[in-house]
Amino acid sequence: MKHHGIVSIVAAGLAVCLIVPTAKGADPFEKFGNTGLDRKKPGPTTPSPFRRTPPAATQPAATPTGSRGIALANDWAGHLAESAGGQTMKIDDLRALLSPYGPAEADLAAHPEVTIYEGSRPGAPAETCRITYLMPLDRAEKLLFNSIGIVTSARIVAPGFPDGLFIRTYDIKAGIYNHLTLVIDSAKPVAQVVALQFKAEGVWWYSPTPFKKIPRDWHVFDYIGAANRGQSGIAIDTRVNDTSRGRGYLVVNVTGGVKPDQLPPPGIVIKPAPNTPKQTVTWYAPVPLVKLILYCLARQGGG
Fold it and tell me: In terms of pTM, does the model score above 0.85?
């Protein structure tokens, strides 16, 4: 039997490890520890027992630009009118993923107490930062990056998200991750951060406990990027770490393949199999956004 060691990779407030050949007798977990997932989170990690509430009879207007709260399009919940035309599986996956974690609610408030992300800075794992819900984009960029390289921007087209959101994707080097995406709103003159996602191309990471594997024949492997599998039979592994009670956000990890439900820290990193999604996405979804997405889905029926 070959003996293996562990090369620690600390990225995005998460600790993962890559199995590599090493000398006999080496401690495989020698360098693991002292990251956000190793420390005990406040409150329970089981799904929150929120009751889902039906949407209001009329859709509230989005918060005007320049005032407190999220800034969206005027008809922000009407984004899914085309849902019957090829988006049904994506919508069903999104509903199955988020329904246990919040009510369907048109919550447009600011919620400065809600965290989006708290962990290592990309490229500087020894330094930490905290990004809060609706933090101004320029401030969030200063906290996250020492310098900003290539950035691409686009309007978000992912079904289920309220209309009026945009994405900014940055090239980074942070452990296994090579892209960071910020979801931002339409606020002027400075947009506000609504969610955050890390992406690792060419790598599968199976996240460990306290993440819980959600059993389902999943179709979507990138909710923000609106990417789904191209054919049936491709396995997608979806796991959620619920810190909504203690910190106000969920961490959703999606990758390809199949691994056991319960994995010890730091999880497993492997090379993707052929003809499969060759990436891992780790989405930090604050509860106010979860409620807005569920509200949009409920307005389309079946919620």
Answer: no
